[in-house]
Amino acid sequence: MSAPRRAFLAADTPAAQKALAELTARYPSAAPEDVEIVIPLGGDGFMLETLHRFLSRGVAIFGMHCGSVGFLMNDYRAEGLLERLAAAQPVSLHPLEMLAVDERGERHRGLAFNEVSLLRESRQAAKLRVSVDAIVRIEELMADGILLATPVGSTAYNLSAHGPIIPLGAGILALTPITPFRPRRWRGALLRHEARVKIEALETDKRPVSAVADFTEVRDVVSVEIYENRAIQITLLFDPEFNLEERVIKEQFAS
60-61 and 234-238: which strand pairing? Predict the structure, then answer.
């Protein structure tokens, strides 16, 4: 059988562009529209852009790290690429879907592989009502915001907000407040991946709130519903010796 067709994409940085030139000189490639494997070169931000770009194409993604942060990427090496692709282990990701309603009553949809976050827009803390599966769990949360993170996203903004790191395959999402003021002792919750979370913004006339799903931002929201969309799937490929699951475990023991 012939090797799967592949395409190289690179971030607009000197390191990524240098890697692109080296790889395209060594290995045949095709247009991104005609391949089974896409190889982004850059950091995690560029990887997220690639995931969203090819979400509906059914291709596999084998990222190589040429940026500042590379949690979702394999190490960059030009030699032995074909053998690495043949031995790579697949990981399937399902995004969170955000359904947001703004103050004008307009509805907005966004997808997130890392997290959906609600953030205050002004100097005053946000006031939020938090419901899980149609049951109000927090009547009034005062905070800079709140986020719902996937296991992959649990090592990103969620970790910076002191949320828990979640192993892949745990079937859990992290609901984490961002700099909470009240309730003072609430530090978040772990939810089943089937859970549907609804967050309502209160007193929006003086406490406006925005909602962000990866690259989709909606200003002045009044309510946001979030759930994991299992109908959408994309496949990442990782070197066996340092796969994504191992990286998540190692993050839990990082000092």
Answer: parallel
